[in-house]
Amino acid sequence: MDVSHILEDLNDAQRDAVAAPPGPVLVLAGAGSGKTRVLTHRVAWLVEACQISPLSILAVTFTNKAAQEMRGRIEQMLGFPVNGMWMGTFHSTAHRLLRAHWQEAGLVQSFQILDSDDQLRLIRRALKELNLDEGYWPPRQVQWYINGHKEEGRRPGDVADSADSQQRELRRAFSTYEALCQRFGLVDFAELLLRAYELLCNNEPLRDRYQDRFQHVLVDEFQDTNAIQYEWLKLLAHRHRRIFVVGDDDQSIYGWRGARVENILQFEKDFPGAMVVRLEQNYRSTGTILNAANAVIDHNRGRLGKNLWTEDDAGEPVRVYAAYNEIDEARFVIDRIQSWVDAGNRRSEVAILYRSNAQSRVFEEILLDVGMPYRVYGGLRFFERAEIKDALAYLRLLASRQDDPSFERICNVPTRGIGNKTMEQLRDHARINQVSLWDSARALMHAHELPGRAVTALTGFVRLVDGLAEEATDLDLADQVEVVLQRSGLLQHYRKEKGERGEARVENLEELVSAARNFEHDEDDELPPMAAFLSHAALESGEGQAEQWEDCVQLMSLHSAKGLEFPLVFLTGLEEGLFPHQRSMQEPGRLEEERRLCYVGMTRAMRQLYLSYAEVRRLHGRESYTAPSRFLAEIPDELMAEVRAGTTLQRTNWRVHETPAAGDGAGVSLGRHVRHSAFGDGVVLNIEGRGDHARVQVNFDEVGSKWLVLAYANLEVL
């Protein structure tokens, strides 16, 4: 049979991978190097050239969309459907296995899958059974704890005993939650994988059957696998060792949600004699963009190593813009986009990338102001985010106690014991007496028509709102917002939500303070500043995003950008403490993941790449003097050109210079290691103000984070 058509459109490295002999194969596929093509052609090669039945092939992807696209391409190449072939995500494959063997897995035949929200509700029930207060045991924190252990392959009995009472209670919650799942025939997403793995581990005949069935196992995005996923793959491929994995250690950016870059680094040890193929020819970006990205990622240690290249031209230099502040940065970016559009290009060819979701606010405001359509890819616009709506609801209730929607939204956020039954009584009383929920609450509290616990909860809420209103009376707008965030408990509530999601929510709330501080109140406006700001927020949230089919600018976080490409990319906020994020300086291995994230962002650009940073940034409610990101310093000068607003582009020997510290200029700057006579050694995370009032935030090794007045701190730069 002639199979030349399978190989003819491939480059040499791609052919080596597609036609690799049976056995373990690791394909290191650089950004834009055609990994999907290699996977689809590999399946076609196995079926046509090696005469392998599609029924003997298992292909695992990370999204259903990727699985559907791969299946379509394979069927187009083969000319016939491959319906019997197992192809899907880890979760869908595990689900299929459990449906077929529900009895052996210890499940009921009609078991149901819990999504994240349903899982949270069941966790709340478990906490209630244990009499654990949600205020002290936030359900999302418990959810993070349970899923984290399951993704590592651990049941409650596998969790080590701890003298820490908090850890003991979490383990009890884990056990109770598992008992509820078993009682009601429920399976969460993490359970799908763990239960499928345990099924094969504990049932030798079934394990033998599937090891024989799946003669070839193919895996996409291997660098994003977590512990249980890799164990599951090793188990299936153990007998025949015909496992073909495609991934890129330089694009492993999901460590915060359990992905382990160690899996791809460990592959050759787990499968001795594995063939390694590097896909280094890039079909997306210009030579200059690739060289700049290579230079950055080369600073990471422990890489498997590869160097992207292209046959295309070098292209234009990477442009660097030093903005005065975040508003100047946003205006510059949007001016450049307008020039791009004026030259006959489409807005949908442009992406604005940022490290923190809170950065989107300034871009959104200016895009709305100039009337340029945009879309926040994979997320909500700033004023549509749940935590921002919570904060605005508090502010609206302060402004008007008759605001029923705001009362309903936040009377039990954070949790304070005002349940559904109490709310039904309030609604009934309000409807019958034609009054607001606030007035109903006060009336029922004094009429003794509610249970004592409900009265206590409502009394606490009413006093909180009245107290906030009194405390905020003489404060300026930004300080009012800050007081509400602190005293309402919203900040503390979201800080308890572990992981990247919780941190993003806190950053967004802090950014709301910046929005209030930057809000320009029109003196001719009859509304007071707070009412005007709330109206502004309502109008902005009412301005709908552009539809997916519209020609609009794409805004997205760097994590959301993976897998996408755009002719013009703006990578913004390249400052120490923001990108790399300040927490990466505190946790081992996080700085390298931040660098991989930068590499991913840079390699999204096809023709033009802009990198920008601000000298002063008001973000998360604080104004900071920032230093350019170390990632900028890692790009060779000859690949970059500094650009200034309103002037022509000029090539320069651009180099990152350390921003002098506020105050006495003694060399203290962001990211610097310093020593304090009492607190010991630490790293500078933030600098605020200048002169005698300058402050620095230092994360000390022994005592944690401290704010110090620079003039009196006597810090020694190490």
Detailed description of the structure:
45% of the residues lie in helices and 15% in strands. The protein is α/β, with parallel strands linked by helices. It has a 7-stranded parallel sheet with strand order 11-12-10-13-14-9-17.
Could you give the topology of this structure?
Layout: H1 4-7, H2 12-18, E1 25-29, H3 35-48, E2 57-61, H4 64-78, E3 86-89, H5 90-100, E4 112-114, H6 116-129, H7 139-151, H8 165-184, E5 186-188, H9 189-202, H10 204-213, E6 216-219, H11 227-237, E7 243-247, H12 262-270, E8 275-279, H13 287-297, E9 318-323, H14 326-342, E10 350-354, H15 360-370, E11 374-376, H16 386-399, H17 404-410, H18 420-433, H19 437-447, H20 452-472, H21 477-487, H22 490-495, H23 499-518, H24 529-542, E12 553-557, H25 558-561, E13 566-571, H26 590-602, E14 605-614, E15 616-619, E16 622-625, H27 630-633, E17 640-642, E18 673-676, E19 680-688, E20 695-700, E21 704-709, H28 710-713, E22 716-717
Parallel strand pairs: 1-7, 1-8, 2-3, 2-6, 4-5, 6-7, 9-14, 9-17, 10-12, 10-13, 11-12, 13-14
Antiparallel strand pairs: 15-16, 18-19, 18-22, 19-20, 20-21
Summarize this structure as a short list of keywords or feature phrases.
Rossmann fold; 7-stranded parallel beta sheet; 6-stranded parallel beta sheet; 28 helices; alpha/beta; 718 residues; 5 domains
In round numbers, the mean pLDDT is 88
- In spatial order, strands of the major sheet run 11-12-10-13-14-9-17
Binned, the helix content reads 40-55%
Kindly name the structural category.
alpha/beta
